[in-house]
Structures are given as C-alpha cells and as structure tokens.
User: What shape does this take?
Amino acid sequence: MEFNNHDELVAASKNAAKKWRLVPAPQRGEVVRQFGNELRIQKAALAKVITAESKKIVTEAEGEVQEAIDMCDFATGLSRQLYGLTMPSERPDHRLQELWQPIGVVGCITAFNFPMAVFAWNFCLASVCGNSIIWKPSPHSNGCADALKNAWDKVAGEHKDLVLVLKGGNEEAVALCKDSNIPLISATGSTQMGKELAPIVSARLGRTLLELGGNNAAIICPTADLDLTVKGVTFSACGTTGQRCTTLRRAFVHEDIYEEFMQKLHAYYATLKIGDPSDKSSQLGPLISKSSYEDMQKVLESLGDKDVKVHGGQRLDVGDPQEFYVMPAIVEVLKVEDEMLNETFAPILYVKKFTELNNAIQMQNNVKQGLSSSIFTNDMRESELFLSSEGSDCGIANVNIGTSGAEIGGAFGGEKDTGGGRESGSDAWKTYMRRVTATVNYGKELPLAQGVEFDES
Ligand code: NAD
Assistant: This one.
C-alpha cells in the first residue's frame, strides 16, 4: 500500500500493531515460521539481491539469508517462551509477577552491509513480541527491503502492514526518531549516526537500541595454533571486504611468534581471490562505493609519513571498472597510531607486537568502541583472563575464533561508542516489550509493603 505521508504510514503501522497484539503469541510465531519457510524457498533469489546491492560474495549473501531464516526459527520457539518471573511476595495471600507486553511500533534504521539480517534480528523478535515495524533501510539496499517486504506479504494474510518500508535518507530517519508514536528506535550504522539520532529520541524520552561502529582487535599469544589463527584473522579482516561492524581492524601479536605469524599471514593474503562478487570463486568483492575507497586511501596516505610498513591497499583492476576493488592492507606499526583508534570501513589491518598480555589487553580496550574481540591461545589462563572482568571490555569476546561471524543464539552488540544495544538471541527480546510488575492480592486483608500502617487507630 502507498502512503501519502509519514503520518499516514505511522498510523497504518499503529493499527497493524493493535490488531496483531491480540493474536496469541504462539500464533504470531506460526506466521513468523511461515515467513521463514518463504525465505527458504526464495533463498537463492534473495541472496542475489544482496550481492547486487551490497556487493557481497555469493556464500556470504546466502549466509545472510540463512541468518534471517535462523531468526525466524528462533523467534517461532521464543513465541512460546516470553516468560515473566514470579517472585515471592512479602505479604500473605499476594502474588508478585512480571508480565511482558508489546510496546507497539518499532522504528528500524539499518545499514548497507547487512541489508537483510539486521532487519530479521529486529523484526522476528519485535513481531513475536506483538509489535509492528517501520523499516528505513540504507539507501544502498532498498531492493533488499522490497524483496523481504514481498516475502512477508505472501504469508501475512490480514497483517501485511506489520512490515512497512520507509525509503529515504537522513530526513526520513530523523522523522521516525522524532515521532512519539514510535516507542522504540532500533538504529544500526555508524557511531556518528547514533550520536545524531539518539538525542532526538531521548528528547521525547523514547527508547533506543543502538548497534553502532566497532574497532575490533585480536590478541595472538605464543601458544596459538598459527595456521588456525591466520585463517581466522584473514576471514575477519578481509571478509565482506572489511565492511562488517565486527571486522578485525587491529592485531596484537606476541613478539616470540611475530615473524612466523606475519610470514604466514602474507602468504595467506596472497591467495585471496578478489573479483566479481557474483562469481562463486570470489572471496572478496568491491567496496560499496567510491567514497569508501577514498576514505580508505585517505587513511593510508596519512600513514605515509609515519614509522609504519604498509602492504597492499591499492586499487585492483579485476572486474567492472566502475567498481572499487582493493587489495586488503596490512599495516605494521611500532606504536599505536591515531589512525588505529578510528573505524575505517574498509580492509585495513593494523598489526603490532606485544610482550606482556596485560599490555595487549589494555591496547585492545583503549579505543572508544567496544564491539568484538578475540584471543588466540592454547593457554587457558590467558583465555580466562581475557574473558574475565580484567579482560576484554567488548560485548563479544571470542577464543580461537576471529572477531566476525557471530551466531544468532547469543545476544549481539557492544559497549561504549558501539551503543550498548543487544539484538538477536538470548534475552534480547525483552527490549521489544514493556515490563509490567503485577501484584495480586487474593486475600481478605490489605497489608501494606514494608509493614507500613495506615489503619485508623
Ligand atoms: P550509516 O551510518 O551511514 O547509515 C546507517 C543508516 O543510518 C542508514 O539507513 C542511513 O540512511 C542512516 N543515517 C546515517 N546517518 C544519518 C544521520 N545523520 N541522520 C539520520 N539517519 C542517518 O552506516 P553504513 O555506512 O550504512 O554502515 C556502516 C556502519 O554501520 C559502520 O560504522 C558499521 O560498524 C555499522 N554497523 C554496525 C552494526 C552493529 O550491529 N553494531 C551492524 C552493521 C553495521
């Protein structure tokens, strides 16, 4: 359905939410299950849309649709598990209980690099919780939004308006943030975007769920299995052409294994197949845009007069000349350079030696972002330290796995400038509901809490 303006669209979404919340949660889950089946049928076709718009290689694009399917399965089960706790009441003949109710319309602003999965994280949870969604996709991926909306419409029956797509740029996103009919804004994208939008939502005391930029690091210790490590590091640093929020951007390597690690890393990088993302043999496609390429080059140029060794980073002539293919860069640094403190959304991996693990952990944590982190070690004291309160300060901490490629079962998100939001698995669904604390008196007296007396004496 076409809407004439923002207000009409929001009104339709509100109506859809009102109707939908009356459907029992397990029946909502059943519709989401059918949506998942529709995605299964369309998996290859949907992946092609991702490859065309986001320039992801075939296996990653198919993996992204699979992630949306997995979310449907997860949410279907969840629809029978939206549990509230029952707490012992301090008063006789009373029950103290938590109830979880839908919050209404969820505004969902998404980035170009996960044009279907992030919508699925949000929609699958929001919908089984009884809410509708207005989706403002990245201007790079409107076709992905159309494709998922069509898939939803096929299974939705009278609930088509549960998913409404609002195409546009910053202005449309800001309008969603300002609208007090929308109690929750879930926004995925750069930290800059989060810093601009969050104050707009909080000015009306709305809720935000922020999934923002990362600056992820791996620590590579002397006992690490170097072949496994090099694979994990390369996939995390180069996969999706360095354009994942969880992309590995910094590696701290123990001095005892530095030379061997670097030699193996260069050898592995030399085997990378960079080219047309729709060719199944390609491991890396092009960057999303000319401006991404220019941002990457600007950073590499600014490193030119510093005490660093830059390998790679140049533009490659391996496909459509309109596209920006690059050789992923490895930058060996002697000291922490300013460039390492920011997220450049391109494949640049900074590598630095370390001597003491505590110092490596400190360098890892010493950035504004707090999304994903890894340690490669076979020493359990090192991995346990890394996972302890004195270790990684990120929302994601991995052992012997790179920083990217999370499963849907865990809650996804990060701290500090990453925004603090959690989506996908575990109890992330609670963000999409309002919590009601209900106290029920089934007795004949009216005792007050904390022993307060109010009777006439
Ligand atoms: P982006 O910030 O340019 O855009 C993201 C979305 O926000 C788009 O829909 C865009 O239209 C909107 N937007 C951007 N700036 C805005 C503004 N000033 N006002 C209103 N709306 C605005 O991000 P991108 O280039 O599409 O994606 C890359 C960024 O997203 C990276 O920083 C990456 O780390 C981050 N990201 C984070 C996660 C996560 O889960 N933490 C996931 C994917 C991407």
Observations:
- The chain has a mean pLDDT of 97.
- The chain has two domains: 6-212+419-438, 216-399.
